[in-house]
Design goal:
Blueprint lengths: L18 E14 L2 E14 L3 E5 L6 H8 L7 E6 L2 E2 L5 H11 E5 L10 H6 L8 H13 L15 H12 L6 E5 L7 H18 L2 E6 L2 H5 L3 E6 L2 E3 L5
Parallel strand pairs: 3-8, 3-9, 6-7, 7-8
Antiparallel strand pairs: 1-2, 1-4, 4-5, 9-10
The chain binds adenosine-5'-diphosphate (ADP) and magnesium ion (MG).
Length: 242
């Protein structure tokens, strides 16, 4: 399959039985000095548009590496990663950048907010369209949606961890992504804040149809995902009974 020409609208944003991701025989190796580290080995899987999936596994099992590949932030050493029919393994840098900017929202364990900007400014700055009145209005609407309307003008330092992560989720939504990729999004949160963040991600998935992929080693977090994928030593494990 070849890359879609018009990357602004791959398949017209259609959601349906078509998988949004289709991975086949994916390996990712890193060179560490003279040693080759295999972070991901022989991964084949499909993720449907609108699924909510957890990636579970112990530290070092390859969760973050797989998220980088799914997020078009890195390329596989071998194998095929089709995203909406676009082959990420051979797509140009420009194509990958377009996909990252317009289609994927990222959420990280450390929130990664800019400390000198207000919550609203942190969200607005993610706008692909020039920041301005429209982006500013949308930023405030998104903060409203994540339950932080009254905190829009606060600096991150005045927000709790859970609130900062909700700002980060609002930022991830700025460009209307099809996919949210979250790497240990609750790793720095107490269990009550973690539950609030998971409520929000679940709502985005069920009400807006955003595909959500969450790496976690927290079983409670994974348990909130209808589909759980387990990694060990870079390989997908067969489903275990709960
Ligand atoms: N940039 C890198 N260079 C070398 N080795 C790496 C790099 N990133 C990850 N690794 C190695 O790949 C393996 C998987 O790491 P990672 O994907 O971060 O796992 P997880 O997120 O599950 O903790 C580990 O052995 C890790 O040390
Ligand atoms: Mg990790």
């Amino acid at each position: 399959m070849t890359a879609t020409e018009d990357l602004g609208h791959p398949l017209g944003g259609q959601q349906g039985p078509e998988p949004i991701y289709s991975l086949s025989g994916v390996d990712k190796e890193y060179a560490r000095g003279s040693v080759t580290v295999t972070a991901i080995a022989a991964v084949s899987l499909e993720i449907g548009a609108g699924e909510m999936v957890s990636l579970e596994g112990p530290s070092g099992s390859g969760k973050s590496t797989l998220l980088l590949l799914l997020g078009a932030l890195d390329r596989p050493t071998r194998g095929s990663i089709l995203y909406n029919g676009v082959e990420l393994a051979s797509a140009s840098e420009r194509e990958l950048t377009q996909i990252r900017r317009n289609e994927i929202g990222f959420v990280f364990q450390q929130f990664n907010l800019i400390p000198t900007l207000s919550a609203a400014e942190n969200v607005e700055i993610a706008a692909q369209a020039r920041p301005g009145t429209e982006a500013s209005t949308r930023a405030r609407e998104l903060l409203e949606m994540v339950g932080l309307g009254s905190r829009s003008d606060h600096l991150p330092s005045r927000l709790s961890g859970g609130e900062q992560q909700r700002v980060a989720i609002a930022r991830a939504l700025m460009n209307g992504p099809k996919v949210i990729i979250a790497d240990e999004p609750t790793g720095n949160l107490d269990s009550a804040s973690a539950a609030t963040v998971m409520d929000l991600l679940s709502k985005l998935n069920s009400e807006s149809g955003v595909t959500v992929i969450i790496a976690t080693h927290d079983r409670d977090v994974a348990g909130r995902c209808p589909r759980r994928i387990r990694l060990r030593d870079g390989k997908i494990q067969p489903d275990a009974d709960e």
